[in-house]
Amino acid sequence: MKKLASVVILLIVAALCFNACAGKAPLRKGEILIENKGTAFGGKTPKWVDAAIAGGAKDVEKIPDYKDFVIFIAQFEAQNLQSAQLLAERMQAQTELASYLSTRVKGAFKAANVDSKNFGVYGEQFIASVAQATYSGFGKDMDWWVKVQTYTPDNKPDKQIYRVIQLWTISKDMLQKQFDMILAGIAGSTPPAPETKRAMDVIQNAVTKAFFSGK
After folding, report:
1. Any residues with CB less than 8 A from the CB of 151 and at least 6 apart, and which?
2. Which of 4, 69, 80, 187 has the fewest CB atoms within 10 Å around its CB?
3. Contact (CB, 8 A) for 64 and 92
4. In what order do the strands lie in the sheet with 157-171?
5. What is the mean pLDDT of the segment spanning 121-141?
């Protein structure tokens, strides 16, 4: 029973770490790479992994092969590869994607720097709807794993952990159609007015700039 409890605790801790780390770079400051999928099985590290390490999902979207996609990077950690892979298999992909997209929409609205009462009301509705939606055309493209040495704040060797990284994609065209449907639903639930149209235009312009420009 003690052994079972230890395994359960390990999985819970790893899951919590995933929730905190999803979308960030596979290697973090102060970590040293020990091994990865390429060194273990032969083959070069894919460009998307290097891009994710350098800056995250938005940097992956700059790679020519992924310029027509919105990217989601999911990560899972454990002290052995099997546990990290098990966490990856159990991920609720649609839930995590919706959460990621809603967070990215929030960032887009903040970057738009528009102070409008109506925009704020409809913007919050849009964020909530994005977080609750189920997305078609979304799937896992590739996965990778790394084994890293972590260090304590005083630069002493700490743990060696495995991190499984997944690359999920959805085409910009498909996501834009689904965002348009969400926006149309919000607009249709309110009486037509010039203020409503202006607010919807602000939302659409901010989202287009953040997700779909240059497609």
Report:
1. 30, 31, 32, 157, 158
2. 4
3. no
4. 32-36, 138-151, 157-171, 69-78
5. 95
